[in-house]
């Protein structure tokens, strides 16, 4: 039986929409790993030996500046593929990938990926879709950092992006990052993130219960994100 049988994400993402033969190859030649919260999948600068397909959970990607400062670039979830550009380009990993929730990951080693793409056209299309998603994510990261001029605007833009993604995937919007990590993603401070979230809750723009976040007034967030 296919390891992907019954998966709610089947048919939606880069390697989640394969033909029967390609799926069988992936099932036989990939390794399924469980990563607890805080475990690192791979580190920035390491030789790229495999791609990592997220089946469940959330993974944060961080990069380090020449001054040694670390910044969170994105949050990846089910269906996302990590390490594709580094493996295909035969370059070191550009980021560090760390589980922020317990994750189930399918690991496909580089030599197997190359064989996979040579033998199955749908695997090559899957790799192309993964690279296209990397491009879209990079554009979103630049938009997040460059367009809203205020910390409140950047945080609002991030919440809107996550809300739109949760609606697309049909999954609840959860706050899996700490306020410190949210500050890293939006180029501000933990204190500013805490104040902004408190203000948004007080204004009725969002509701937070535990780790669940609900956008109640998207227009308010859009107004802030345009500042």
Automatic annotation (TrEMBL):
Keyword Transcription regulation applies: yes
Cited SMART domains: cNMP, HTH_CRP
Domain HTH crp-type: 149-219
Keyword Secreted: no
Pfam (any one): cNMP_binding
An example Gene Ontology CC term for this record: cytosol
Single annotated GO MF: DNA binding
InterPro entries xref list: cNMP-bd_dom, cNMP-bd_dom_sf, Env_Response_Regulators, HTH_CRP, RmlC-like_jellyroll, WH-like_DNA-bd_sf, WH_DNA-bd_sf
Every Cyclic nucleotide-binding domain range: 35-117
Keyword vocabulary terms for this entry: DNA-binding, Transcription, Transcription regulation
Protein name in the entry: cAMP-binding protein
